[in-house]
Amino acid sequence: MKYKILFFLCFIFTFCAVRAQQTEKLYLSGTGNDDTVNWDFFCTEGMNAGKLTTIPVPSNWELQGFGKYNYGFNKEANKGKEQGLYQYEFKVPATWKDKKVNIVFEGAMTDTEVKVNGKSAGEIHQGSFYVFKYDITKLVTFNGDNLLEVKVSKHSANQSVNEAERKADFWIFGGIFRPVFLESLPQSHINRVQIDAKANGVFTANVFSSGEADKINVLLTDANGKKLGNEFSTKITSASTQINQQFRNPALWSSEFPNLYTATFSLIRNGKTIHQLSKKIGFRTIEVKERDGVYVNGVKMKFKGVNRHSFYPASGRTTSKKISVADVLLMKEMNMNAVRMSHYPPDGHFLDVCDSLGLYVMDELAGWHGTYDTPTGTKLYTEMMANDENHPSIVFWANGNEGGHNRELDHLFTENDLQKRPLIHPWEVFNGFETTHYREFNYGIGNYDHGHNILMPTEFLHGMWDGGHGAGIEDYWNAMWNNPLSAGGFLWDFADQAVVRTDKNGELDTDGNHGPDGIVGPYHEKEGSFYTIKEVWSPVFVEKREMTAGFDGSFLLENRYAFTNLNQCKFEWKLKKLNAGAEAVFKAGEADAPNIKPLEKGKLKINLPADWRSFDALYLTIKDFSGKELFTWSFPIALPKDDAEKIVVKTGSSKVSLKESATAYEVSANGINLTFDKLTGLLKLAQNAKGIIPFSNGPVLQESVNNFRNFKTKMDGDQLVITSTFDKKESYNTLEWTVYPSGWLKMQVKYFPSEYFTTFVGLNFSYPQTEIKSVEYKGNGPYRVWKNRMKGTQFGIWKKDYNDSATGEPAWQYPEFKGYYSNLYWCEFIGKTQNFKVVTDREDVFLRLFTPKKSKDTEYDNMSPTFPTGDISFMNGISAIGTKTQKPETTGPMGMKHVFYDFDKEPGRALDMTLYFDFSTK
């Protein structure tokens, strides 16, 4: 194999970037899915088996058209057992002669056998997600080409590895999926450092070195290169040297202020630096107080976390620094402060980004229902710790997941972690923590809500399609925030696990309902729950308030930060006049940031202009100290009745005419022809000069009965009124139509739900889905809502084109069109042949647009029923949605059915739905 040009580029770049006394790296592969190097490759089974070809490294071979795609739940007989045979020729710099040379694999799936120049580099490595290395000093030549041969078996010869990693609820891939590089070390060198930097400035390190040296110098510098204290030295007396130092007033690390220092360790012999090793560190203290909580730097924490796979659709588990940055930025945008590694250690660059941008991390030794045997688990634990232990972002260790806990490994975490971070068994009551997954909201047995352990579910609100995550989180978070034993929790999970199927023309595959569990889509498309979480988890809580005439610009705030005073934030306001089809007219300003300390309440005062009530809405945007938006809250000023008074035209020059037949009322006014069923009162036809508008067959009551009876007509001035007769026993629901000379039509329905508990209540009309092009409406948007997911929207005028998207399915087109929309003022339906407008003067009306296509649920069918009959609905109450593991009613009070009580059928206590219809050609 010819020496690769890319190798030379990596070689030159690396040697320009390092000094001789530092560890030198030379990549044989690329560094991620956006930077790869082709190696010779041969796959034994599946796609393209038996062909000698090339493959990018790093990669998962399925995504390159080799082997078989397997989801972990697949039966053993269907699982790919293929092997990949890799070859690559490389050169070793002549300057590395007389140095120690290691070859380092950051991750390979799964059993990995390595040969250099035909000789074994060491024992076969078993385990997919761990950095491992071989000393190949005696195997390489410095004056010519070297041949690297790697055999990777997708499934392990060690059954415990398969039980822990391969029989899991996630995609199973094969290949060298993380980078491979050579490293050069002086004969005397630093092997490893363990660092503990406490919030009080106490710095402790264990330095493990090889060879001859006199002392170790340590220097700490901040991000600007400024020294923290002075460089200090410690004599070397053995292969392990402990260093202790006290620093004054270091800048502390937290998710809010991720202050990092670089600790540079220099190995000194005869006054000369012979090797240097640098680590990014953060001063912070993690403390668990039994029956109390988790404290970071002395402050009790609520973890707002999510579970995250190392995953990208087009490259499987091969990611990149760019992807890590994007993932963390999205989590931070949702106001999260924590992430759990599910269910294995991540790429090193992901932890680097969590350190630099600020996320608390739970790092996890693999084990999903199955466990590593003790010898294998001990080896893999050691590899995980050697690479991850110094990251300040890591505040928890997890030993496996959901029963995948080898308890014989527990003592290793306690004995070998210099920082003594807490150990978690996800899905268990263990070590003072109750982490049980997917508990129902009202669950209160034993050690959970009424117990004494620290509550921190490592998975809750299991998303699937549009269920979970945002649905129920407000109820859960209110309970978590107010429970002193709660330390928060971790949602399942971050992104839909949809993989590109190279064997199916690039189709994105979630393995049915196993993979579409994300808050965002596979390529980070934002779903409605993204914004719900962003609002619910805002570190500044804005108390609800109405824009009454007496509003003085004051908002009550709660500072839910742990370390940030709200005077470090920015508060912007905007008043808008909302006009259909036009840009909003606005006034804007900035309010003085209030001095509200962490975990305290206070008041924000906005000095609004005198004419503020002439606007339609007030918007309040709060940004953190870095300028990142926490959320924008919207507050309607004008009410639906105010809009209705301006929009609805009642007067006109024409007269209202009525023709009665045996079955119908036929009404005409100002070029509008309307037909009502004489027996039921339902609208049967609406027609203008252009023709028939296909909106009809309503109102049909939902969760109630259409017992409108004994209709009568009368002229009320120049208006025609068609009204049913109230009877407490037979026709207690009433319908009244009013036709104005302008051609506008008013409908008023007063009704009583049939049941004490109802899934939804409202009224339906027929409108063919094939007719709709788009809608423009005034209300909350642009995302749909559920009864238990009302937050995350914004009040305004929204134009939405029709789509048939279903959450979690191709083509991941958001926002979805079909669904419920809250706080309706008016809506214009834009059809292929005719448009019409509906206006309401009532508050809290929901608009329902058609029924989304039903995705395949689990056997529990938790996501349905969710929608009423008919096509277009105007609702007083809408349905909730469940999660993958819970019915809607078990996600909290907001997920429960509506309760309406009025057995006496008194008209004054009926639900009231009033709508106005404009069927004109304007």
From TrEMBL:
Glycoside hydrolase family 2 catalytic domain boundaries: 287-505
Signal peptide start-end: 1-20
Domain Glycosyl hydrolases family 2 sugar binding: residue ranges: 53-186
Gene Ontology cellular component list: beta-galactosidase complex
Coiled coil: none
Gene Ontology annotations of biological process type: lactose catabolic process
Annotated ranges, domain Glycoside hydrolase family 2 immunoglobulin-like beta-sandwich: 189-284
Domain Beta galactosidase small chain/, chain residue ranges per copy: 712-829
Entry cofactors: Ca(2+)
Keywords, ordered alphabetically: Calcium, Glycosidase, Hydrolase, Signal
GO molecular function: beta-galactosidase activity; carbohydrate binding
Reaction(s) the record says it catalyses: Hydrolysis of terminal non-reducing beta-D-galactose residues in beta-D-galactosides
Enzyme category, top tier: hydrolase
This enzyme's EC code(s): 3.2.1.23
PANTHER family: BETA-GALACTOSIDASE
Oligomer status and interactors: Monomer.
Family of this protein: Belongs to the glycosyl hydrolase 2 family.
Name assigned to this protein: beta-galactosidase
